[in-house]
């Protein structure tokens, strides 16, 4: 009996009128935990009842405390008929179980009903008394701290990083149970919400147990996902990184603020490193397996020799780390930002995808199939990492895309070599090691140096000596999934780079469908990569950070969306230009055409250089000392769809000469591609955007942060859509979305959108059927802006004085293709496309963005914790997808926020159509998150993300349903005083 | 690109004041987009029409969702759905409750009932305010009326607290509520030249002098209802005109005091009895609800019009009233000084404002011209001659008054032409009102 939960219902306000006759409500409250229920008295005839109940006490196991939410139901008392439910509040009491987090939950919670939305508010007080339990076989893991933040939380110090933890829990989806046929939508939605709440509690508890086993006390980079597999069940899975964290005294907090203290403004020279992205085999369940060739994309080069001094050290280091990591099954880390010195070398992006056919989960207690699937993928990632000479994978994440019974599982990360000192037991004197530890290379370029043996390269890459230290080799391009290390030397500013791709596929069922998808995947991945590379070159940049590739499957198309932040790393060689080559020499008009395009490309590159302030010091090759032998080699890019797959990645780059990258125009598609390359609208002046936490090259942030979510659905006509047509629509959609952000945030200029997070999705097949087979594209996006105070802007002494602010966003787009000719004809007109019927198909794209915006003119709002108006105060809660709030210091983490909501309506038109419905719902979700954070005593949510936003609609029946899952870390933060208590030099 | 669904939600609710105004003015989304395009936002930020449309839709949705909260502004401060900084909340509320002067002028003094609501489209067409905006404004009046109706304490304070409006706006609403409650007639042609603000001023005077609240400040409806006892007491003032001695005494006191201070002494002397009878009769009749409603018309007909016809300047009127009022205090036999003061304070300031406005609205020159020609109704550019035309509205006193200067010769003409003239006047009025009703263009 290790815990006593106490709850008190204080009062309600703004309740809805439940009795038409009196225009009042007779409200009472049921408080339920586990199987115990208490009731308050009925407060007659009041819309603002004061219950002031006694303390309801629940004596429960801590296991239950972790799994179950406290359920508060507000009802309207009815003497004769059944009591009407007004709404519910689920309170996750997990934050109370950890001594360092919140001690009491107290505040106003919106009363939520899945049909009517928010209906008034209720004031609740919750406390927990835990007794110490020394039982070794306990099943609970109270006290393990969870953080969504994918870096070491600000007021903690990592003593030890244990490594990867994962778990998944499976259950039947209540929506698909037989009982759903006879119960009300409300009951069904509530059953679902409750089940998911229970499952995520259980998942968290199990992961906690694993962490305790490993000897850790916290999970950082906790990433929980739902797979709604429909008929076959509901999977909740989570991954994270187990750590042992030490709380820092507030004085030394800045030590961990590595993001905030950019070291290198200087640009000296550049390096590059390889990219390794692999699209791996897909296996179908049921003894059916298709293997897909693994593609490796890289820049290629040939090497001289490794810097000699560094050689032995590197080997030594590798050995140390390897021993530490070998004990682990998966040397994965979900972190994307690291303490200084943690990251030694970065190899490149590794990714694996696999196509599976879903089948019913027969035994929910033993979810072996799903476990096995993920196991396979992780093994593959691990081996890719090994191939790159790395012993670890950082910035690791997993995702799924489900359409009917086909499911694509994806995992990606960045292969890296880590500093073993964080992984060794008993190495606690980090502060000292920090200085004693001989870095094999300076921090500003060390991570770029290749981790693999250059004589034995896993893929062709072009190596040069590091432009910064000149001692070690670097690749020409570097792709990673992590945030830009704070100590990295960057030239100019970064920018958001996106590759977008649609591929039609035939409609099919079962295995045939799975095979078709499998066959398409490598091409998509290749093409996305090519696009990214081209766009990168076009912007004169040489590295991508925060790369996130999402492939969504729909009925008759696949959507791919890759977002990343491009930067010019001073350590990598300058990128060459792009050269256009025609395949049919002699044709004068064609040649003229090519010349025009070439000119446009060159102009764009020049313009971009200026825009992003990329002006690396000119380095002649003589200065470089040892020019790479065959640097003059021309690179050629073959378009994947016109070549067979075995020829795929023959892309060799030359550097040194500016025409490093050749685009061959061999057919009209290629022309289209080049066009799309050039049509990316430039960011308006005053705006910066990136999908990483901080904008490279901008260092002054204000505390004005605005987070937002935007969702768009676009309906495709059933017209004769070609890949190109689709690509164009998709690209326009993304571009338009960005444009409307810029427009909406125009008052905040200068403004930077950070952690811009796009998600694309093609709504499910069943929905399309119900809805009459339509195509729609949904974009959903959250973003956030930070604003700069005017003083910073006007500061003449700093060259980099543009105000930077950020915003982060999440954007999900979904396209579904539908096919009834009559319905589609309207859409077809709108799109001006020829009528054509596509039976059905759907594409779902989801992307999420983060943005930041600097605001001049002292518009930055103060972070006062309270605003009061009309005598009553509501706590202002800031939300940000970043792991920190600019201009403030996080003084306490209050616990993880992980909420799941379902909203349904049967009066869609009355609520303003789908847009009105979703608008209200998102606003409601925000308000509930804010209320929970405020009740925990917090004033901000960091690392906020909207993981899921699934919308199903049926306008004919006037119905719609939407599911939203959000998560983040509740924190208390205070304004940073002008002078930090300790100088930030300690963080180096 | 036409989106099936397109929403944008910020943690801190994002609102554009310009779009808010367009929404309040009742523009449809498409019209609003057009106005914004003409306003040049697009060039400013290189946006396309799509972007503008999507933004406008988002904002309109947000406002619609907020509207429910704006109905009880105090909720806006402690609701959890929208995170809006306080200064923005204040802006939202203030603008939501702001009304068009042209519109309010039309409904001022009318019962805020369903019947009036049905006429809103006519009023809208007349004033150039969109029907949507009319409804909003009308509902605002009604809402404020309903809430303060049953509250104790000062009217302005109550409105200020319950609707979180600025002081100025709260005062205006107090006037609207006061007029609606007492159903003062303001729509008559003779009162057309008065603006809402003129009436609001009078309402302020009435509230602070004639209501129950003027003597007792903790009664229900204290500032809404007139003090019945006071109205009853007003009957006593009749002695001033019925007692021949008192009347003569009063007249001589006034004339003595005025001597040398005005050029119109003769007219003042001649008209004294008529004017005094007019004012005292108004006071004596106020126990009838009907006569309360006609208060302003009576003031115009029985005091202002006679003065106008004698070409009194505003200064003359002020001077005359001051002495007319003060002289009563010198009448030893008159016992109702307190009631007299309470009555005259309001009447004095009201007449002053009504007269000044008349001057402004017509321009004295125009008036003089007409006087010269002595042809009533010939001046088509202004309304005053018509209102001065004899015999249009009943009232023995006025006829009496008119008799000496205008020996009734035009009466038949006036009667035959009245209806036609009226129509043309109406038209012009509406034109003027329409111009005044479009403050945002």
Automatic annotation (TrEMBL), chain A:
Chain positions covered by the region annotation Disordered: 622-643
Chief site of localization: membrane
GO cellular component: cell cortex; cytoplasmic vesicle membrane; plasma membrane; ruffle
Listed GO biological process terms: insulin receptor signaling pathway; intracellular protein transmembrane transport; positive regulation of D-glucose transmembrane transport; positive regulation of protein targeting to membrane; positive regulation of vesicle fusion; protein localization to plasma membrane
Cellular compartments annotated: Cell membrane; Cell projection, Ruffle; Cytoplasm, Cell cortex; Cytoplasmic vesicle membrane
Statement: the UniProt record of this protein carries the keyword Ribosomal protein: no
Database matches in Gene3D superfamilies: C2 domain
Domain C2: 1-109
Alphabetical keyword list: Calcium, Cell membrane, Cell projection, Cytoplasm, Cytoplasmic vesicle, Lipid-binding, Membrane, Metal-binding, Protein transport, Transport
GO MF entries: calcium ion binding; calcium-dependent phospholipid binding
Entry protein name: C2 domain-containing protein 5
Organism: Gasterosteus aculeatus aculeatus (three-spined stickleback)
Automatic annotation (TrEMBL), chain B:
GO terms classed as biological process: platelet aggregation
Pfam families xrefs: FIBP
Annotated Basic residues bias: 415-426
GO cellular component: a single term: nucleus
Record-level Gene Ontology MF annotations: fibroblast growth factor binding
Region (Disordered), start-end ranges: 404-441
Protein name: Fibroblast growth factor (acidic) intracellular binding protein a
Organism encoding this protein: Gasterosteus aculeatus aculeatus
